Amino acid sequence: MKKIGITGTIASGKTTVSILLRRRGMPVFNSDQYAKMCLHKGNARFDEIVKTFGEGILDETGDINNKKLAAIVFSNEEERQKLNAIVHPFVFEGMHKFFAQKEDLPFAFAEVPLLFECHLENEFDEIIVVTCQKETAIQRMMEDRNYTREEAEARYLSQIDPEKQIAAASIVIYNDESIQDLDRKVNQMIGKLRGRNGKKA
Predict the structure, then answer these.
(1) Same domain, residue pair 2 and 66
(2) Among 12, 23, 43, 161, which is 20 to 30 Å from 137 by CA?
(3) Residue 175: closest CA among 31, 23, 24, 20
(4) Is the pLDDT of residue 17 over 50?
(5) C-alpha–C-alpha distance, residues 22 and 109, integer Å
(6) Are 5 and 128 in contact (CB under 8 A)?
(7) Nearest to 192 by CA among 181, 183, 201
(8) Short-list 69, 66, 75, CA closest to 33
């Protein structure tokens, strides 16, 4: 079974690629969604996060408010590293279990936005980088996430250099056009993977 990582530029359409893969019956682990399990009472990492960042991050239900937590860690590298040290081992354990359950399949995918930042290159047999032009990403963040241009610019500049991601990729998907164009490129990507694997998924 080939383990394939999906990563890339912010607002490039990584999650859309994952959705298109699932529609084709491909298994995809979503690291961001798995990490959000830590925000809820009863999760093994919940108490440690609250102890580290204080009860001010809680919402009215007693769960962790993701926006309050993000406001603390996004602009403070030391605080972000503290959060990563708590959450990342939980996510990596979940990803390893996911892959172990798919051993009988030709491929299994994991969407990991911080794949390069976390130095996970050796975890995967192939790395798919989804990318787009800077202005495309800025516009998507403003339209889909209600960011101001300044907020969108800051998020874009906070990521690893997109050119470095592209250089380290097995396959690059450029997503600046329509969903139909992206769907076609996902078909091409699967074709390449099947060709390399020597069998059909």
Answers:
(1) no
(2) 23
(3) 20
(4) yes
(5) 10
(6) yes
(7) 201
(8) 66
- Number of domains the chain is built from: 2
C-alpha span between 193 and 196 (Å, rounded)? 5
Give the integer Cα–Cα distance in Å for 49 and 97: 23
Dihedral angle, C-alpha 44, 50, 51, 56, nearest 10 °: -170
Stated length of the chain: 201
- 15 and 74 in a single domain? The answer is no
pLDDT recorded at residue 197: 73
What is the 8-class DSSP label of residue 87? H
Banded pLDDT at 158 (limits 50, 70, 90): confident
Same domain, 22 and 78: no
Q: How far apart are CA 46 and CA 11, in angstroms?
A: 28
| Assigned token pair, 70 | 């993000």
Q: How far apart are CA 87 and CA 44, in angstroms?
A: 10
Query: Which domain-ending residue is among 78, 101, 124?
Result: 101
CATH code where residue 8 lies: 3.40.50.300
Residues 115 and 189 in one domain: yes
Instruction: Identify the pLDDT of residue 196.
Output: 80
Residue 199, domain member (yes or no): no
